[in-house]
Amino acid sequence: MGTAFLLFLQSMRVDSLVQVAALVSALGRHGFIWIVVAIVFAFSAEKRETAACVAVSLVISLVVCCLILEPLVGRVRPCDAGIGVSAVMGVSKAGYSFPSDIAFLSFAAIGSILQYRGVRKTAPFLVLGILVSTAGLYLGVNYVSDVLAGIVFGLVVSFLAKWLLDAFLLEYLRSLARRIGARFGGALPTRKTAQPSAAGSPSGAKGSVRNKARERRSATQHIERGNRR
Q: Which of 161, 162, 209, 220 is packed most tightly, with the most Cβ within 10 A?
């Protein structure tokens, strides 16, 4: 059934759609688009934990998918399996197909965003992830089962990444940020503001006027006493 579906998609190939599918697939390769998303999130204080979770999930996904599962399973790509699915010149991928690394990385990032941002704010990223993940089917470099497995594994890794952040990494990152802030903050010279003098302040001026008035009254009273005598 999977082979028949890929052959059907191959029969529907159009040059313009092939170029679009190749561009969309390239966005997800090595998690490029999700690295960009994490960097953008990192500039917002309220999204930094999301950015950290996306980054951790991408690192785990690259290790698990590209270094462990793909070599372990060793599934040949459809375009190289001799089943009638032809490769698209210039966009065919080397390596193994199971699980789809693009789907793995995409849904690891999407799962991380979902846990922090909610369903409504995650919806645009979900649409992007589906397009990026399924482009490989149209290009003949992945089976349907490759993509589905990548989605499931990616979501599992996203929950693992959040657990690691909450249990170990997040408090360490906050402490590191505080230490860096304290270090650079302490190194910066602080400008001392001059305190207004008593005479220069409004209250000081009023006090000075009162003192002079008292002195004049005292002098006047002293003269009057002298005249009486």
A: 161
